[in-house]
Structures are given as structure tokens and as C-alpha cells.
């Protein structure tokens, strides 16, 4: 989304990204306004900014205004862009800049008449109101106040910004509200708007009908968690340029099944957590351009709508925490563009469809926490691009197919809490990229495949609660990245050798038939935090459990 937006702004406003270098430098008056603006805040990284900017959005926050020094050319300051002809400040990007404090309604910044782009996203304005003076920035085509901890009513003056191409007031914390008057003004006046993000804004006092007359230029409309009421206007689906639509979490919206237009260009559709009882989508197969579909948290009383499997451009399908009654249709295999498939925690039953073998682009497959039964189809070994495979907590039986050893890109393999039996296939030694291997709580037997150099990247190994026997494999002692080993509740026998992995933190070998002395060199592994050896036939120290760095 972001790169796409950048590109489109660049195409339509090439002058805008002009460099700030040039013979002119910024006027005293504009520099003074900026300094005055900066001085109205404390520059502190609050918990809010750290959480939302750095952790959730994954941007790197830092105080951009630290480079703002009186007596220097403001066009060279971090976050400031000037027009190269006359050095007017035309863009301010202060997103993620540690601004903290109530937003001043009398700031002289509102007198910068040439400002076209203003980004204040991810600062902390301490629950102050959006000043109505924002309505003075009549040259703005881009305004971003996303995740700023502005609170209260959105002033109706925002609708005076009739040149806006992009408006982002989204914030998941539900602290902004908008009334009928202001929302109608926005829809009516923003005739150029292409990107409208209002997620989390409380719209419970307005009928969703107001969105009926949105600009035909609209490309993105994001209204997740807005508590929309009434009927969503059907003509939104006819907007010829609409590319992204997010209505997630609006549980009070009246949905007589949403009908999609065959000429739609929608690529990204999020309808998560909208319906707990009714079939609410119809003719979804009209969305032939769709690449991303999220239907998590809904109920599908008649099973997964089969028409979804006609979406031949779909790259990501996410349905988690839903209630889907019935089996996965075999036509899942028609979704040949899929890269990312999550169908977890959704009450699915029946077999894993063999047709998944056709999804040759798939890199991520998560079918965890359902009631899927039958065997793991060996045809999953066709999916050579897979890096992530999770079938945790189902009712799968039979052997682990040898063909999984074909999945050489796999980093994450989770088959725990099923009813798998037989031996772990030797071919698993081929999975040299594996970082995470978990097959706990099954009925596996025999010994663990061994080869000294196996699993050079393995970090996490979890095979507890099976019937595995034989000696511990030699790679267990040498795999350089292993941090977490749980082989408890099996029937392993023989002696324990010296562990060489300095990264080892957790080692559980309890409830086995291990014998002999325990190698004291284990105490040199400084990162070891927890060691459980109880219920074996070890001599010397038999049972102990320790936390923090072991020192004896
Ligand atoms: C934040 O708001 C609280 C309560 O409204 C106020 O007491 C405090 O001074 C404000 N902090 C700043 C830095 O403006
Ligand atoms: C804005 O108002 C505050 C008091 O409300 C005052 O201290 C400050 O000087 C004013 N700033 C400007 C630029 O007028
Ligand atoms: C608003 O700014 C944030 C932070 O830079 C960015 O992640 C987000 O995509 C922006 N929104 C729009 C609509 O450009
Ligand atoms: C539309 O914008 C103009 C100024 O650009 C303003 O005078 C008018 O009040 C706005 N209309 C609404 C409904 O907000
Ligand atoms: C949409 O525009 C039409 C024609 O201008 C007008 O009659 C109608 O009332 C508007 N609807 C809404 C909900 O604003
Ligand atoms: C689909 O949208 C187009 C405009 O993009 C419109 O002309 C057409 O009537 C719509 N079709 C239906 C069935 O609503
Ligand atoms: C899927 O598309 C085919 C033709 O492309 C059509 O015949 C069929 O009815 C569609 N199936 C569903 C369930 O929409
Ligand atoms: C799964 O379906 C059963 C009824 O068949 C229901 O009781 C249960 O709550 C559902 N589980 C989830 C996670 O929705
Ligand atoms: C595993 O790799 C060996 C050689 O490295 C190869 O002979 C064997 O066929 C592979 N097995 C699978 C299941 O890919
Ligand atoms: C192991 O799996 C069974 C079902 O196969 C389940 O009932 C049990 O709670 C699981 N135990 C653990 C410790 O995961
Ligand atoms: C491991 O168990 C299998 C059967 O599950 C048995 O055939 C084999 O002899 C056992 N090996 C050892 C070393 O106990
Ligand atoms: C031990 O833990 C520390 C802190 O978590 C980490 O920085 C260090 O890399 C670890 N040592 C090894 C050998 O993994």
C-alpha cells in the first residue's frame, strides 16, 4: 500500500518531491513558525509512540525536530521539504517524531499557506482535540493524523480541505468521533479524495448511507471498527477505481448479502468480524482482481462459500477464528495464485484436500486448531515454495509423509497435538533450513533420524509426549543454534553426552529411560535457564530444576 501511494503521489505531484537544494533558503517567518511549533511539545518517546510506531507499525521513531536549529536554513531540516522555486515550506513529515503534549490551537504553523503535505502520524497529542484551525490548510492534498492520540470530535472544518487526495485519521483506540454534519461535509467536499482511512473512528451516530456519494476517484476506503450503523451503500462496489476496502469489525452493519460488481477492480478486501449468523457475501467470484481477502471471525453456516475458490488472482486468504461448518471444498486447488493461506481455529472438519497440491506458489500454510481428520496428504510434498507449515491441533492420523522432506525451504514445521503414528521419516534430515520443529503429543515411535550435521539452523525442537525410543541423536549435541529442546515423556535410553550449543536455554529430558552420569559440562552453558531431568535412571544428581544462569 505505502509504496503504491508514494508512486501515485509522485506521478501526480512530481514537483512535490523536488529536493530542497537551490539558491533560495526558507523565510524567517516560516522558520520561526516551525520553531514555535516544535517548542510547544516536549520531545519524548512516550509509551504510545514506542508501541504504535516502533512495535506495531515497525517504523523507527526518532526526534526529527532535533535537527531544527535557529539560524540554519529550514529547508535542510529533517522532515521539512521546500518548493525549489521560492523555498516555501510545502511538506512536513513529522511522523514518528516523539512529539508529546496537547496540540496548540493557536500555533503559527496554521499560517503556513503553502503546505501541501502534512504527516503527524504516530505522535502523542495527549488526548487533545484536533483544532478546527486545520481547516485553514486549504492547499493540503495529503493529511495524515493516524495514531496520534487526538481525541474527541473531528471538527467539521476538516471538510474545507477540498483538495485532499489522501486523508488518514485512523486509530484503533476508538478515541475520535465524528457526527453526521462533519461526515456529510467530508463526503461532499472531498471530491478529489483517493485514499480515505478512518478506521477506529466512532461513527455510531451516523447512518452508513452517508458514504453513498463518495468521489469516483476513490481507491482506498478503510472503515474498520467504526461501529457503522444502517445499510452500507451498494454503489461503493461500483466505484471503478476502488482497490482497497476494509469494513472489518463493523458488527452492526445491516448486510443484506453484499453483492459485488463484475467490473470491480478491488484487490484488497477485509470483511473480518462482521457477521455471526448470516451468509453475508454473494457473488464474491465477481472480484476477479482480488489478491487479498480476510474473512476471519465470521460464521459460515453453509460452509465456506465455494465461489471464493473461483478467485484465480487471490494471493492471500485469511480466515481465522471463524465458524465454518463443514469440510474444505476440493476446489481449493483452483486458487493457483495463493501464496499465503490461513484457515485456522475455524471448526473445519474432514480431510485436508488433496487438491492443495496445485497451489504451487504457496509459502505459508496454516490449518491449525480445527478438526481436520484423515492423513496428511503426501502431495503436500509438491509445495516446494513452502516455508511455513502448521497443522497443529487437529485429528490427523497415520504416518508423516516422507515427501515432506522435499520442502527444502521449510523453516517452520508444526504437527503437534494430532494422532500421528509410525516413525519420523528419514527425509526430514533434508530440511536444513528448519528453525522450528514441533511434533509433540502424537504417537510417534522408533528413534529420531540421525546424522551429525543435521539441522544447522534449528532453534526450537519439541517432540514431547510420544513413544520415541533409542539414543538421543548426535545432532542434538552439536546443532549450533538450538535454544529450546523438549524430548520429555518418551522412551529414550542410553547415556547423555556433552551439549555443545552455547545458545541452549531450555532442556527437558524428564520421563525417559536415560542412564548413567549427567555430563557436568552442561554447567558451562551460561545461557541455560531451565533443566529438567526427573524420572530417568540417571546417577549422581538425578532431579533438579533451576532458573537464571546456572552456577554450581
Ligand atoms: C496531558 O494531559 C493531562 C490531562 O489533560 C495534563 O494534565 C498534562 O499536563 C498533559 N501533558 C502535556 C505534556 O501536555
Ligand atoms: C498560544 O496560547 C498560549 C496560552 O493559551 C500562550 O501561552 C502562547 O503564547 C500562545 N502562542 C501563540 C503563538 O500565540
Ligand atoms: C500515514 O503515516 C504512517 C506513518 O508514516 C504510514 O504508515 C501510513 O501509511 C500513512 N497513511 C497514508 C494513508 O499514507
Ligand atoms: C466545502 O468547502 C468549502 C471551502 O472549501 C467550505 O466553504 C464549505 O463550507 C465546505 N462544505 C462543507 C459541507 O463542509
Ligand atoms: C447524494 O447525492 C444526491 C445527488 O446530488 C443527493 O440527492 C443525495 O441526497 C445525496 N445522498 C447523500 C446520502 O448525501
Ligand atoms: C458495475 O459498475 C459499473 C460502473 O463501474 C456500472 O456502470 C454498472 O451498472 C455496475 N453493474 C451493476 C450490476 O451494478
Ligand atoms: C466459477 O467459474 C466458472 C467459470 O469461470 C463458473 O462456471 C462457475 O459457476 C463458477 N463457480 C462458482 C461457484 O462461482
Ligand atoms: C465449533 O462448532 C461447535 C458446534 O458444532 C460449537 O459448539 C463451537 O463453539 C465451535 N467452535 C468455535 C471455535 O467456533
Ligand atoms: C533427501 O536428500 C537426499 C540427498 O541429499 C536425496 O537422495 C533424497 O532423495 C532426499 N529425500 C527427499 C525425500 O527429498
Ligand atoms: C494431547 O492431545 C490430546 C488429543 O489428541 C488432547 O486431548 C490433550 O489435551 C493434548 N495434551 C497436551 C498436553 O497437549
Ligand atoms: C523402539 O521401539 C520399536 C517399536 O516401537 C522397537 O521395534 C525397537 O526395538 C525399539 N528400540 C529400542 C532401542 O528400544
Ligand atoms: C546468551 O543470551 C544472551 C542474552 O539473551 C545473548 O545475547 C547471547 O547471544 C546468548 N549467547 C549465545 C551463545 O547464544
Automatic annotation (TrEMBL):
Residues 29-83 form the Leucine-rich repeat-containing N-terminal plant-type domain. Residues 269-391 form the Disease resistance R13L4/SHOC-2-like LRR domain. Residues 1-18 form the signal peptide. InterPro entries: Leu-rich_rpt (IPR001611), Leu-rich_rpt_typical-subtyp (IPR003591), LRR_dom_sf (IPR032675), LRR_N_plant-typ (IPR013210), LRR_R13L4/SHOC2-like (IPR055414), RLP23-like (IPR046956). The keyword Glycosyltransferase does not apply. This is Uncharacterized protein. Pfam families: LRR_1, LRR_14, LRRNT_2. It is a single-pass type I membrane protein. PANTHER family: LEUCINE-RICH REPEAT RECEPTOR PROTEIN KINASE EMS1-LIKE-RELATED, LEUCINE-RICH REPEAT-CONTAINING N-TERMINAL PLANT-TYPE DOMAIN-CONTAINING PROTEIN. Its main location: membrane. GO terms for cellular component: plasma membrane. Keywords: Cell membrane, Glycoprotein, Leucine-rich repeat, Membrane, Receptor, Repeat, Signal, Transmembrane, Transmembrane helix. Belongs to the RLP family. It is found in: Cell membrane.
Amino acid at each position: 500500500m505505502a509504496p503504491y501511494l508514494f508512486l501515485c503521489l509522485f506521478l501526480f505531484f512530481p514537483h512535490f518531491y523536488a529536493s530542497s537544494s537551490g539558491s533560495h533558503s526558507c523565510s524567517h517567518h516560516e522558520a520561526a513558525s516551525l520553531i514555535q511549533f516544535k517548542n510547544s511539545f516536549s520531545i519524548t518517546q512516550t509509551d504510545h509512540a514506542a508501541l504504535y510506531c516502533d512495535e506495531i507499525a515497525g517504523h523507527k521513531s526518532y526526534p526529527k525536530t532535533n535537527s531544527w536549529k535557529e539560524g540554519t536554513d529550514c529547508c535542510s531540516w529533517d522532515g521539512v521539504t521546500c518548493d525549489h522555486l521560492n523555498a516555501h515550506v510545502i511538506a512536513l513529515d513529522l511522523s514518528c517524531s516523539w512529539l508529546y503534549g496537547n496540540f496548540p490551537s493557536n500555533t503559527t504553523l496554521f499560517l503556513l499557506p503553502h503546505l501541501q503535505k502534512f504527516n503527524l502520524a504516530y505522535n502523542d497529542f495527549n488526548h487533545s482535540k484536533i483544532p478546527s484551525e486545520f481547516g485553514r490548510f486549504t492547499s493540503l492534498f495529503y493529511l495524515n493524523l493516524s495514531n496520534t492520540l487526538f481525541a474527541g470530535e473531528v471538527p467539521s472544518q476538516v471538510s474545507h480541505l477540498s483538495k485532499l487526495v489522501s486523508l488518514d485519521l485512523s486509530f484503533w483506540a476508538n478515541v475520535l468521533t465524528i457526527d453526521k454534519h462533519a461526515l456529510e461535509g467530508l463526503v461532499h467536499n472531498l471530491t478529489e479524495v483517493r485514499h480515505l482511512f478512518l478506521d477506529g473512528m466512532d461513527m455510531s451516530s451516523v447512518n452508513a448511507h452517508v458514504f453513498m456519494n463518495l468521489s469516483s476517484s476513490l481507491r482506498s476506503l478503510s472503515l474498520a471498527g467504526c461501529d457503522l450503523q444502517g445499510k452500507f451503500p451498494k454503489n461503493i462496489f461500483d466505484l471503478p477505481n476502488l482497490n482497497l476496502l476494509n469494513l472489518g469489525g463493523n458488527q452492526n452493519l445491516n448486510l443484506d448479502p453484499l453483492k459485488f460488481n463484475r467490473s470491480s477492480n478491488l484487490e484488497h478486501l477485509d470483511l473480518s468480524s462482521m457477521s455471526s449468523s448470516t451468509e453475508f457475501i454473494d457473488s464474491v467470484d465477481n472480484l476477479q482482481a482480488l489478491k487479498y481477502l480476510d474473512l476471519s471471525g465470521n460464521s459460515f453456516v453453509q460452509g465456506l462459500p465455494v465461489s471464493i475458490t473461483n478467485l484465480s488472482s487471490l494471493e492471500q486468504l485469511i480466515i481465522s477464528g471463524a465458524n465454518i461448518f463443514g469440510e474444505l471444498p476440493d476446489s481449493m486447488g483452483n486458487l493457483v495464485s495463493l501464496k499465503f493461506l490461513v484457515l485456522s481455529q475455524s471448526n473445519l472438519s474432514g480431510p485436508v484436500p488433496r487438491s492443495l497440491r496445485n497451489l504451487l506458489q504457496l509459502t505459508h500454510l496454516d490449518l491449525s486448531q480445527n478438526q481436520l481428520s484423515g492423513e496428511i496428504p503426501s502431495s503436500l510434498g509438491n509445495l516446494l515454495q513452502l516455508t511455513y507449515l502448521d497443522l497443529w491441533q487437529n485429528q490427523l492420523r497415520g504416518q508423516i509423509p516422507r515427501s515432506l522432506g522435499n520442502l527444502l525451504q521449510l523453516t517452520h514445521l508444526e504437527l503437534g497435538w494430532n494422532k500421528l503414528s509410525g516413525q519420523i521419516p528419514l527425509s526430514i534430515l533434508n530440511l536444513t533450513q528448519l528453525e522450528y520443529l514441533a511434533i509433540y503429543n502424537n504417537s510417534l515411535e522408533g528413534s529420531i533420524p540421525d546424522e551429525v550435521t543435521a539441522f544447522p539452523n534449528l532453534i526450537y525442537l519439541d517432540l514431547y509426549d510420544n513413544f520415541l525410543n533409542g539414543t538421543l541423536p548426535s545432532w542434538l549435541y552439536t546443532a549450533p543454534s538450538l535454544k529450546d529442546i523438549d524430548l520429555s515423556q518418551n522412551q529414550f535410553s542410553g547415556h547423555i553426552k556433552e551439549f555443545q550449543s552455547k545458545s541452549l536455554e531450555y532442556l527437558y529430558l524428564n520421563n525417559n529411560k536415560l542412564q548413567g552420569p549427567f555430563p557436568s559440562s552442561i554447567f558451562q552453558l551460561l545461557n541455560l535457564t531451565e533443566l529438567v531431568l526427573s524420572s530417568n535412571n540417571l546417577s549422581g544428581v538425578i532431579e533438579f530444576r533451576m532458573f537464571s544462569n546456572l552456577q554450581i
